[in-house]
């Protein structure tokens, strides 16, 4: 919203030759200017369209105003010229723009229509300005230009026209009022003489008060302005109803506005307001001194709009006419008011201010000023109470004073320092509360640590005292102060007290309002109960059942009987300030003292605007495109695009308090969503039809009827059902191909696995065939036979048992794909032990195991290590003439088992030299089987095995003899 400047322009009322005196009152006026968004500070004209917008014509375009935002239109937006001098609104909702180039144009359905985009407006203006506009009862628009030429707009075309044989002027339209309706309220003319209407009567005398028939004619017929006189015009007679000279207006009248019983007159030098003119009141106020008034407009809500030459637009809200204002600009000493009261007999109003200044306003509205004693510094008047006949009791910071109404004189009754409150008992006894003591007749009672804020009497002898630490009770007999009960509410910081019909009302500093009966809390009211604030500044009881709570945010009115809130009164309702210090009520008039002046008004006529605001759609955005307002939108789907709605409400009073609610059919949340923003985005809408409802309300109004927008998001081709069907079919085909490929892969893998298993079986069979050399078996049996013959039956039996166990282990292992390392070592131990016996213990052996092997369970393919050990014994150690040594070493290397078989036999090369052909074939077959098994394992699980045979003598091991065989075996490792 544009920042609004509030200007207090006070009614400086004229003292007329009749000696009439009128009340001095204030009127609050808002100003809108360029900094608020107005197109130019010079404004020629104003009009309200059918929707409720206010339009302003300026030299640099037109401004459309909703109460919060200006939308400016220039030539680049479609105007025929930026210099717009007059505006008119017809019955169809079109706003017509009159420019100096004479080309007709209008705004309708969110578009400016001109001859360039609307063929019905093609016309040659011939350089003449459109001076007046009329609308006939068929809806045709008639222009009268500055050359008295007539131009007709039928809605289909614009043509020059001629009405009758006689020359046409403005009087032709005025006297044919049954056909033509003027689209302006008044006409500035040079003469009243219509030469073609000789029977027309002209009544130049201006009666006052106006007869009823003249008032009716003014409200029904157009007004003609000639110099500074006003006439009600009809074809039968022209009646003068206002003579400016008789009212002290010497300037030429440029424009007028009829506002109920009030008359507004604009001149090149000032604005004049005649309150109650049509009801016979003679009140004249001169406002906006030295302002050139260019036009006046009363909108549908009753607000008055004043356009000026060079000073922007002024607005007087309708409700400000119900309020009267006083401050230091129109009679009071100060704008900061602390107390207010009225003498019930004479009606004199007393206004207490700072610096000990008291203003009085008598029944004739004469304001007088009195200065109380200020010798001791600050001396604000904090309380004013009716006392005795023609006397008012006045409590100031530095003393208690008596003011005599009849003699208009103030006198010091009692010097008191830091006075806080004064109370009068039913019998007329005075109690004074200072910051640290309560002073009654003949005695005083003090408080040591706490600050006293208020005092109220129960009767002539008992009273309550409010302090910063809570509530105290006192009476004249005991002359002491004590806490009256145990309720925790009694310890709240008290600001003011009122005793009403057996109930004590306590206004606190920050906890709202408490009600006590018999020293117990029976009611607590706070902001949770809709109080305007919890910070009390003063309590006032009007004597007829209503308690007024003055706070820092306005006034709350409480029903004493029901102890409920009646209403709140704030600056939003018309107060000069929310910082209220006191209230006074008498005979229907409510006075409210604020830090910015005194507001007073008829309490039962305070305006309450319950009409909801008109809501409108500004535009819609989808992606990078913007669309004009409408009720239905059909849009093509865009990825990652946000649908955004910008709307507003027409509210000229308190536009910042307008709130909105919207409901979107696709929204998963239920109910209405409330927001203060006028822009609502909806990102990621999918193709569908949506319904958006938007409504608004302003201060104290109901919700408006919702504006309904239907939005259809159309799918792209790839979102259509047939496209989706094709995509699904293609997807299914692709899945079928993938599944077929997967199945084929699985089948090939199964075939490979089968082949692997078959090949492994073959290799294991070969390994089994090659693992145990037939010579070993035959020799073992021979050894058993030899032991039997040598009568070594026991040793023969042990040998035969170990041999049988070894054969059984070999057969068991041959049926497994993997065996544990422990099983392999046990098998090798038994095999080597048998070989030692068979070879008469010609060698020793040992197993070397890495410690890390103990942390895991290791599984290896069977029948891989034993053929190597067998070769080492048979071809390395057995042919050796001396005893030999065999070492089997096992080490873990990640996912491989390193195994080395080291012997100190005759060596690999020498052993090959003495082998027979059969033995060579057996050895080569066993090693080739091991290599092939390692290769197959690698092809299936990726682990690389290795077999390497090293002749130590030829391979750099010094003079060492023997063979070292190294093998890396793929394993399965488990914790």
Automatic annotation (TrEMBL):
Transmembrane intervals: 721-743
Name of one Pfam family that matches: His_kinase
Protein name: Histidine kinase
Keyword terms of this UniProt record: Coiled coil, Kinase, Membrane, Transferase, Transmembrane, Transmembrane helix
Native source organism of the sequence: Chitinophaga rhizophila
Coiled coil: 739-771
Gene Ontology molecular functions: kinase activity
InterPro entries assigned to the protein according to its UniProt record, in alphabetical order: Bact_2-comp_sensor_kinase, HATPase_C_sf, Ig-like_fold, Reg_prop, Sig_transdc_His_kin_internal, WD40/YVTN_repeat-like_dom_sf
Domain Signal transduction histidine kinase internal region residues, every copy: 764-841
